[in-house]
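Entry type: protein chain
Record version: 2
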Amino acid sequence: MINKGTVILGVLIGAAAGVLLAPEKGSATRDKLKKEGKDIKNQLSSDLTEVKDDLTKAASSGKESLKKEIKDIASKTSYKTEQAITFLEKQLAILKEKNKTLQKTS
């Protein structure tokens, strides 16, 4: 993007200098300036549209990447949660057995 901006700036400066320094009538110079201005406006509009499209693609790509990372994190968290539940179930089974030994049988 920086290179494109530099090129456009160079074109603008060159066109303005060429038109202003040319030995022509004022009306011809104004017409050339109008034409150059329209051409530059169209080019800038086209370049800005291209940049906007690139940014949209990048944002979309980043969004998809973020969604994937969230899914990965959710999956890893789910496995860790499952491990914690299994551990707690084992500890509860141990406590249940210890509790049984404390109960009096009638």
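Comment: The CA atoms of residues 19 and 33 lie 7 Å apart.
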